[in-house]
From TrEMBL:
<comment type="similarity">
    <text>Belongs to the MntP (TC 9.B.29) family.</text>
</comment>
<dbReference type="InterPro" id="IPR003810">
    <property type="entry name" value="Mntp/YtaF"/>
</dbReference>
<keyword id="KW-0812">Transmembrane</keyword>
<feature type="transmembrane region" description="Helical">
    <location>
        <begin position="167"/>
        <end position="187"/>
    </location>
</feature>
<feature type="transmembrane region" description="Helical">
    <location>
        <begin position="131"/>
        <end position="155"/>
    </location>
</feature>
<dbReference type="GO" id="GO:0005886">
    <property type="term" value="C:plasma membrane"/>
</dbReference>
<feature type="transmembrane region" description="Helical">
    <location>
        <begin position="6"/>
        <end position="29"/>
    </location>
</feature>
<feature type="transmembrane region" description="Helical">
    <location>
        <begin position="41"/>
        <end position="62"/>
    </location>
</feature>
<keyword id="KW-0813">Transport</keyword>
<feature type="transmembrane region" description="Helical">
    <location>
        <begin position="102"/>
        <end position="119"/>
    </location>
</feature>
<keyword id="KW-0406">Ion transport</keyword>
<protein>
    <recommendedName>
        <fullName>Putative manganese efflux pump MntP</fullName>
    </recommendedName>
</protein>
<keyword id="KW-1003">Cell membrane</keyword>
<dbReference type="GO" id="GO:0005384">
    <property type="term" value="F:manganese ion transmembrane transporter activity"/>
</dbReference>
<comment type="function">
    <text>Probably functions as a manganese efflux pump.</text>
</comment>
<keyword id="KW-0472">Membrane</keyword>
<dbReference type="Pfam" id="PF02659">
    <property type="entry name" value="Mntp"/>
</dbReference>
Length: 188
């Protein structure tokens, strides 16, 4: 494989990982207002990262099966899925959803938080499985980005409260829509 192609794929996957982790960052900003201890911030961040590894991995496995059976139709569906996920993120950035920011980060509340912010990674994993993306690289980038952005959001939220939340989801959704459109244009 050409080195330029590999670098392009890595940059694309890194941008997607960043975009999909923006909701964890946003929710972390709000949750950071709870004045969590650093140990709790680390637990929340690493568990969120683990969910961002498991969810896209499951999606990629299902996506690979779909691509074998449905070919180009699956690629189109994958592009539309990315556009849908991005649109959903943008839509939620314009609606004040207080409940999402104040899930208690303990016990079942922590699991619900991690599951909620990683659901879009499952859908993206489904699309990436259809496209045949590199599994290990993808899940490691998703896990790393979500761990880092969750921790960053919690720490910033602890200091500055909910300053950037809306804009980060808006940016993340826009990036996913751009990748979805790029995918559909490549089919033409």
């Amino acid at each position: 494989m050409d080195a330029t192609y590999i670098i392009g794929e890595l940059l694309t996957l890194a941008a997607m990982a960043f975009a999909l982790s923006m909701d964890a960052f946003s929710v972390g900003l709000g949750m950071g207002m709870l004045q969590l201890r650093l140990r709790r911030i680390a637990v929340i961040s690493f568990l969120t990262g683990a969910f961002h590894v498991v969810m896209p991995l499951a999606g990629m496995m299902i996506g690979k099966v779909l691509s074998v059976h449905f070919g180009n139709v699956a690629v189109i569906v994958g592009g539309l899925l990315l556009i849908f996920i991005g649109g959903t993120m943008i839509h939620s950035s314009f609606h004040d959803n207080k409940d999402k920011s104040f899930i208690e980060p303990y016990g079942i509340g922590l699991i619900i938080f991690c599951m909620t912010v990683s659901l879009d990674s499952f859908s993206a994993g489904l699309s990436l499985g259809i496209f045949g993306a590199r599994v290990l690289v993808t899940v490691l980038l998703f896990g790393f980005a979500s761990t880092l952005l969750t921790m960053t959001g919690l720490l910033i939220g602890k200091k500055f409260q909910n300053l950037f939340g809306t804009y980060s989801e808006l940016i993340g959704g826009s990036i996913l829509i751009a990748f979805g459109i790029k995918t559909l244009l490549l089919m033409i």
